[in-house]
Design a protein that fits this description.
Elements: E1 2-4, H1 7-19, E2 24-29, H2 35-47, E3 50-55, H3 65-70, H4 75-85, E4 89-91, H5 95-98, H6 117-120, H7 124-139, E5 143-147, H8 151-164, E6 169-173, H9 193-213, H10 218-230, E7 235-244, E8 260-268, E9 271-280
Parallel strand pairs: 1-4, 2-3, 2-5, 3-4, 5-6
Antiparallel strand pairs: 7-8, 8-9
Length: about 280
């Protein structure tokens, strides 16, 4: 495994693989890696001849400077994990390398980016699109791997690829959870032991809601989740929406779509956590 810091060096390294017609996989990350990231890397390693893992905390997708400052960073630990799971290259550029000048590009993914995270984090997905296109252009991968925990982000990246005419394949990978059900997240590292116990109620509520939904209306299911989370000291619900899994638009009843997903964002103390659950899937 090799640590690369510049786009020029990365392209030079990858040209050897590309010229031989070998497949290149990309796993974009912001570091603070865990078993969820490891699952993406393992998938890429199994499906490509070279796997590039980017480790870059992208400033343009944070609309809260404090959140950016507190985002966990540990490149040495990240590299150790990536060595163990078989990554070929770790691309860990400086901010100046990715943004030698301000990126003024504006993207529109309407209506996907106007709901949920898009409504509560203005500019977030524009920043995601800025960095992901830069990574796609630098690596020119055959396949790129993203986790389904960031469900809205995955849908938007799929749309972006179509909009911009990229020929790469986007691979969505299932949520990885702790044994007790908590969705793995780099932000979990910021939870105290007590907050970690409280945060478990998020996934437990979602699992219960799937059973509840079997014989209750969609509106009753939303109320069940909202009331369950609001009743727990230490949790503050930002939103819970049940949406069409393709359009991300809210649905009114269970018969409206064959692909229905519940997406939730909850503050546990100061830590903002997201999760989702599938109620219907083709």
């Amino acid at each position: 495994m090799k640590l690369v810091r510049t786009i020029k060096e990365l392209r030079t390294e990858l040209n050897t693989y590309r010229n031989e017609g070998r497949k290149i996989g990309l796993v974009p990350t912001m570091g603070a890696l865990h078993a969820g990231h490891a699952s993406l890397v393992k998938r890429s390693v199994s499906e490509n001849d070279a796997t590039v893992v980017s480790v870059f905390v992208n400033p343009t997708q944070f609309n809260d400077k404090n959140d950016l400052a507190k985002y966990p960073r540990d490149l040495d630990a990240d590299c150790q994990l990536l060595q163990e799971v078989g990554a070929t290259f770790v691309f860990a550029p400086a901010v100046e390398e990715m943004y030698p000048e301000p990126d003024t590009r504006q993207f529109s993914f309407a209506p996907l980016d106007s709901v949920m995270e898009g409504a509560f984090r203005p500019g977030h997905f524009n920043g995601v699109a800025q960095i992901v296109t830069k990574l796609f252009d630098a690596v020119q991968p055959d396949n790129a791997y993203f986790g389904e925990k960031d469900f809205q982000q995955l849908a938007i990246i799929r749309k972006m690829v179509k909009q911009l005419g990229y020929t790469l394949h986007i691979v969505g990978c299932p949520i990885v959870r702790e044994a007790d059900g908590l969705a793995l997240s780099s932000r979990n590292a910021r939870l105290s032991d007590e907050e970690r116990k409280i945060a478990l109620n998020i996934s437990q509520t979602l699992f219960k809601s799937r059973t509840f939904a079997a014989d209750h209306s969609l509106q009753d299911t939303i109320k069940f989740v909202e009331d369950s989370i609001s009743a727990i000291n230490g949790l503050r619900l930002e939103y819970f929406q049940i949406v069409d899994g393709n359009t991300l638009q809210p649905v009114e009843n269970w018969h409206e779509s064959d692909y229905i997903v519940g997406c939730i964002t909850v503050f546990c103390g100061e830590v903002r956590l997201i999760d989702n659950i599938k109620y219907k899937e083709n």
